[in-house]
Amino acid sequence: MGASLLRLHFHDCFVQGCDASVLLSNTATFTGEQSAFPNVNSLRGFDVIENIKAKLESLCPGVVSCADIVAVAARDSVVALGGTTWQVHLGRRDSTTASLSDANSDLPSPFLDLNGLVAAFQKKGFTVDEMVALSGAHTIGKARCSLFRTRIYNESNINPLFAKSLQENCPLIGGDDNLSPIDTTTPNFFDSAYYRNLINKKGLFHSDQQLFNGDSTNQKVLEYATNPLLFRLDFGNAMIKMGNLSPLTSTQGQIRKICSRVN
């Protein structure tokens, strides 16, 4: 669940900013971000956020936003899995809208090449080094077969034994929703094994392996693979920056009573 909450925060902030727009459910007249290709059948943790919100509303109604809950839950989930901590700035408010089109266009695809990844992160104000640090979130979590099938059957910059082991759970046809850990080394621990995997050509997504494929990001991957403390520091700082992406404050938006719908 820790990986799900971290991903939820990321997929929220990368669209309209950290405004809990990703939590809004579809209605008869509204299609939200959960239906976007990067989110559908992929995001988890909505029930956890709703349970936290319900308890907070009973104690101090109308005070803590869903956006702040998502941000804090992401940080605490990383800490619970042995990762670093960082200061979560509070005071965000919740949006009354969501954008399916922005979710489809702005969230980085697992099929992107390096130039596409750089462009996606630069659009949100992140440097290339910050992109490499934030990609380390893939040290936890699982992915559906449909998101990495092309890589394990068709690409050459992949460890053959690694590819074969994944093919057992991800057949060429069918099994689209079968899951594999993104970091097969320490899937339930937040560490820098993700980068060591890349060096050994064991990146699960095409986009993962692009970070160590003979280009400009190779050096930073090597640094994080050999210096876990540097990764922890840089990841925490990048998460602070991400949590500050276009928040709604003051009288903007609202404090939703239920995170899945507007008041």
Measured between the Cα atoms of the first and last residue, the distance is 27 Å
Helix content: 40-55%
Number of strands: 2
Low-confidence stretches: none
Following the backbone from N to C, one meets helices and strands in this order, namely HHHHHHEHHEHHHH
The order of strands across the largest sheet is 1-2
Q: Oligomerization state of this entry?
A: single chain
Structural class: mainly alpha
- Amount of beta strand: under 5%
Number of helices: 12
Biggest sheet layout = 2 strands, antiparallel
Q: How large, in whole angstroms, is the Cα Rg?
A: 18 Å
Q: Shape, please?
A: globular
Mean pLDDT: 96
Question: Any overview of this molecule?
Answer:
The chain is mainly alpha-helical and 263 residues long. Helices cover 44% and strands 2% of the residues. It has helices at 2-13, 46-59, 66-80, 100-106, 114-123, 128-135, 149-154, 160-167, 193-199, 206-209, 218-226, 228-243, and strands at residues 142-144, 179-181. A two-stranded antiparallel sheet has the order 1-2. Helix 9 (193-199) crosses helix 11. The longest helix has 16 residues, at 228-243. The protein is globular, with a radius of gyration of 18 Å. The model has no long low-confidence stretch (mean pLDDT 96).
